[in-house]
Design brief:
The complex is a heterodimer of chains A (463) and B (512). Chain A is of the alpha/beta class and 463 residues long. Chain A is 36% helix and 13% strand. In chain A, the strands form 4 sheets. A 7-stranded mixed beta sheet of chain A has the order 2-8-7-6-5-3-4, sandwiched between helices. A 4-stranded antiparallel beta sheet of chain A has the order 11-12-15-14, with helices on one face. Chain B has 16 helices and 12 strands. Helices cover 35% and strands 11% of the residues of chain B. Classes of the chains: A alpha/beta (463), B alpha/beta (512). Chains A and B meet through helix 1, helix 2, helix 3, helix 4 and helix 5 of A and helix 2, helix 3, helix 4, helix 5 and helix 6 of B.
């Protein structure tokens, strides 16, 4: 199969114009002994054959829309994606365009990104959003770079919560290898009580996580918290953020965007940077990507923010229009002095997110959040009734920790036999959290799904 | 083309202000009470809401109907130029036609609806695809290992620089802090190095567009991390002394990094690994037909030679149990011994990236891949031959997949920018301009293999016509574009006023 439209006759005419005899003659600059290697690849397939082969591969997976009932989340969530989104994404005008360097003929992309920025600022309660990052983890790592630049590298400590997603913490550590800073706060060997909030009923006045607070000092550039945290719990971080600001440190909150339809925004709590993964907003799980990392902040940090940025302006006919702006911050101008090497955003996925937030709108997103909340709490209540199981979370959104009577891996194997994708085994990242399963429930889980899940777990207990 | 050219030339008047084409924002379209999507009612017994102090009061999102949304984005889509609508010779970006079948394969439910943390036994199709793609990329570029994880070219570069640093450190060689980068390099190369606290030493190009060997030799010492080289470079030139360049870098203990941005020219032509490159990132969104999506997602796998395999980011896909008789192998994740760590959450740009590229490579095979490179190079040299007499090409020899011309003329004050904007009046996307930095008023033209001779001829005719206009009617160019829906932008206003969203939080003080 080929997508080359040139006929042999045209090819020969073109070679004549160039003044060479054959296509091979165009490659004389290549060292002869390495020229034209024989590639050991399978022979070309036609479209029909390729579709069949890819279908076979796809079908050998067990997906969560027919094969399995899923209670797995841990950073990526099974939500309903309204049909209209993919219809718009499939417009060739959107998906086969490049980065909008030529604004006169890229207003579609530019206005869509501008609206994405607006929607994300509205959702997080922040002033500004950039055009997006690769994913939630890399957006979080970029927050570290922002804080590093804000203090000109003089503050050498970043404090991260142990209840920040383990993979996000790993990415931060990878990104900062050459930065001469210390990343602390997330000792995974702590007993579970250290991950617990105080149990009094006034989370506003409570000191949320005293361990983290004790680590903040004049050398701290950034505190990173997750909201809801990796265990699904909703904490009011206002006090902790105040404490961090008292030491002069910035605070980044990694947020689940669906939860923000219901819960107080990190912006309201005083966060300086709010980031997260936009996958729950209209992007399929796609075995982990691509999704979109959102990055929002206060207006005064906008010059330190990495990534593309779209601003409103007018064209020479007086029409409202949009351009990429503050490009002097970027790598193609600043080269080695740029704080980030970011070149792309996640354009098409940012578009998906913008369409999702538009078409669900104020009422639809609240409904999604409420369904997640209701179904997760129903599941938690029912699971908590089974002998040998205990739900340890108090205020949570759509994810909670279930203490099980046996190792999670064993229970999950049994669930899988029954067509259920169980929750996340927390002992993989937290050795002290043996037998603790992180369970996610979304609007995609029916009451029947939940009841079956509960029933099978109760059978596991009685074996 | 002549007709189109004269039409464009005759309609130079700026449209009157009354002809505004402005599309309202989605917030402008909002009307209280309008519903887009309704979710089902809850089917579980109700739980009380969380305490009030946990809740947000306002959710300032738009209220629009589905038809409003469809028309809004349809209108916006019409403001875009794209590969599907016309010729897009944007240098260094490889804006080739992306086969439509990719859009179907990447949306198969088995790919769309699998969770990255599922047990490996339930996602053997995904893992087999990733394993196969790793193997194919290794074979295509001549490497011993490949990570698919990096999310874009720049992310791949960062991955590569981290591995280079880790390699030297593992040998107790801590003093290497200097990265050699040619003056023709993409800005992402020095920026990736800057993120690591390393210093950049810029190596000039010689008069034939090769790395200046004398300057390189002088810069090579025992503090060199390595060299980051795009080959063919951003001038579209294959370095004529590539083996000597690599020998010099290796000679001082440095590693040779290849920026694979221009790999489209090399498929089946030469394997960077065979030339001695130690590592290289691929741009699946350029070479292997992942559509550019208006700025992403990209996909930037990195290939490495045997001595760097242990440093690859985790996780890699490997075979955990070999196949036996009638059972296929068991694929799963493995962690390299001295891994630099994780570059992003989960498994990389699987759906939008790996599936599309897998489809594309499977449909080309070894001969089809070689055709891609040959026709990309044919098209570039054909355009170069047609334009050489009209535009000055400072580095003029057989080029690879692209070439760089100067967008200026001795007897005219027009600049590359004016030529680029004027091309829009002829319904072409402009070439990349003002890059690479070593060519004055650069116009960097990459035709790609998916254009036929007719569109190349039409594009060349337009550029030749524009060169005439530059002398006879320069204002046509200064004021261009005039036939597009939007004219030139006030970039200063955008940066000065910094309006970055069309909604402001309640109580927000605009004057603060």
């Amino acid at each position: 199969m080929t997508y080359i439209p040139t006929s042999p006759h045209e090819r020969d005419d073109m070679l004549k114009v160039i003044g060479v005899k054959s296509l091979d003659d165009l490659f004389d600059a290549i060292p002869a002994k390495h020229r034209f290697p024989k590639l050991d690849l399978p022979p070309a397939l036609t479209e029909m054959e390729a579709y069949a082969e890819l279908s076979d591969l796809a079908q050998s997976n067990e997906n969560v829309r027919g094969d399995l009932i899923s209670f797995l989340g841990a950073g990526m969530y099974n939500h309903y994606i309204p049909s209209v989104i993919d219809h718009m994404l499939r417009r060739g005008e959107f998906y086969t365009a490049y980065t909008p360097y030529q604004p006169e003929i890229s207003q579609g992309t530019l206005q869509a990104i501008f609206e994405y920025q607006s929607l994300m600022s509205a959702l997080t309660g922040m002033d500004v959003s950039n055009a997006s990052h690769y994913d939630g983890a890399t957006a979080t790592a970029e927050a570290v770079s922002l804080a590093y630049a804000q203090f000109r590298g003089k503050r050498k400590k970043v404090v991260i919560s142990p209840t920040l997603h383990p993979q996000y913490r790993a990415v931060i550590r990878t990104y900062t290898q050459g930065m001469n800073i210390e990343v602390i706060g997330d000792d995974n060997q702590l007993p579970i009580t250290n991950y617990q909030l105080p149990t009094t009923n006034n989370p506003i006045t409570d000191d949320p996580i005293s361990n983290l607070q004790s680590l903040l000092d004049d050398n701290t550039s950034l505190l990173i918290l997750q909201y809801p945290d990796f265990f699904g719990r909703v904490n009011d971080y206002t006090k902790l953020i105040e404490a961090s600001h008292a030491k002069g440190a910035l605070v980044c909150v990694v947020a689940n965007p669906t939860a923000l339809a219901m819960f107080k925004t990190p912006g309201e709590m005083g966060a300086d940077i709010v980031v997260g993964d936009g996958q729950p907003l209209g992007i399929p799980m796609w075995y982990g990507g691509p999704s979109v990392g959102f990055f929002t902040t206060r207006k005064n940090f906008v010059h330190k923010m990495a990534g593309r940025l779209v601003g409103e302006t007018v064209d020479n006919r007086g029409q409202r229009a949009y351009v990429l702006t503050l490009t002097a911050r970027e790598q193609h101008i600043k080269r080695e002095r740029a704080t980030s090497n970011i070149c792309t955003n996640q354009g098409l996925l940012a578009l998906a997110t913008a369409i999702y937030l538009s078409v669900l709108g104020k009422s639809g997103l609240k409904q999604v959040a409420n369904l997640c909340y209701q179904k997760a709490h129903y599941a938690a209540r029912e699971l908590n009734k089974i002998k040998g199981y205990k739900v340890s979370s108090e205020t949570f959104f759509h994810e909670f920790v279930l203490e099980c009577p046996a190792p999670v891996a064993e229970i999950n194997a049994h669930l899988l036999d029954e067509g259920i994708l169980g929750g996340y085994d927390l002992s993989q990242d937290y050795p002290s959290l043996a037998n603790q399963m992180l369970i996610a429930v979304t609007e995609m889980n029916s009451r029947e799904d939940i009841d079956v899940f509960v029933k099978i777990l109760s059978e596991v207990n009685h074996e | 083309m002549n007709n189109a050219a004269s039409t464009a030339a005759s309609s130079t008047a700026t449209p009157p202000l009354s002809a505004k084409v402005v599309e309202p924002t989605i917030f402008d379209l909002s009307s209280p009470g309008r519903i887009g999507v309704t979710m089902p009612a809850s089917d579980v017994p109700e739980t009380d809401s969380p305490p009030q102090h946990f809740l947000r009061s306002e959710l300032p999102l738009p209220e629009v109907a589905e038809v409003d949304v469809v028309r809004h984005y349809m209108h916006l889509s019409k403001f875009n130029y794209s590969v599907d609508s016309g010729y897009y010779p944007l240098g260094s970006c490889t804006m080739k036609y992306n086969p439509k079948i990719n859009e179907d394969t990447c949306r198969l439910p088995g790919f769309l609806f699998t969770h990255p943390l599922q047990p490996i036994e339930t996602v053997q199709g995904n893992l087999a695809l990733m394993y196969q793609l790793q193997e194919w990329l290794k074979e295509i570029a001549g490497f011993a290992g490949v990570t698919l994880q990096p999310a874009a070219g720049a992310h791949g570069e960062f991955t590569g620089v981290l591995m280079m640093r880790a390699y030297h450190k593992s040998r107790g060689d801590d003093k290497r802090m200097k990265m050699l980068i040619p003056d023709a390099a993409h800005g992402t190369n020095p920026a990736s190095v800057g993120m690591m606290g390393m210093t950049v030493v810029t190596i000039p190009s010689d008069e034939r567009g090769n790395v200046d060997l004398k300057a390189l030799e002088a810069a090579c010492d025992d503090t060199v991390v390595g060299m980051m080289l795009t080959n063919p470079n951003t001038l579209g030139m294959f370095d004529e002394h590539i083996e000597r360049v690599i020998e010099l870098v290796h000679g001082c203990g440095g590693l040779m990094y290849g920026d694979g941005a221009n790999l489209n020219a090399l498929l089946g032509i030469v394997r960077p690994g065979d030339l001695g490159f130690d590592l290289m990132h691929f741009n699946l969104h350029k070479t292997f037909s992942v559509p550019h999506g208006g700025g992403g997602p990209g996909v930037g796998p990195v290939g490495v030679a045997a001595h760097l395999v242990d440093f690859l980011p985790e996780p890699l896909v490997g075979i955990l149990e070999d196949d036996e008789d009638d059972t296929p192998p068991l694929y799963g994740f493995i962690k390299p011994a001295k891994s630099i760590g994780r570059m992003k959450a989960f498994n990389g740009h699987f759906g939008g990236g790996f599936v599309r590229s897998f489809t594309y490579i499977a449909m080309h095979g070894p001969d089809g891949l070689k055709d891609i490179a040959q026709y990309a190079v044919l098209n570039a040299n054909y355009l170069l031959a047609k334009l050489r007499g009209t535009y000055h090409v400072p580095y003029d020899r057989i080029c690879m997949h692209e070439f760089v011309a100067e967008g200026q003329f001795e007897d005219s004050d027009v600049r590359a920018l004016d030529i680029a904007k004027r091309l829009m009046d002829y319904n072409f996307h402009p070439p990349t301009n003002y890059f690479p930095l070593i060519v004055h008023e650069a116009l960097m033209i990459e035709p790609t293999e998916t254009e036929n001779k007719d569109s190349l001829d039409a594009f060349a005719d337009a550029l030749i016509k524009i060169a005439e206009e530059a002398k006879s009617q320069p204002d046509l160019l200064h004021n261009a574009p005039s036939t597009t829906l939007f004219g030139r932008m006030d970039e200063v206003k955008a940066a000065r006023e910094l309006v970055l969203c069309c909604w402001l939080p309640e109580g927000y003080d605009e004057n603060a």
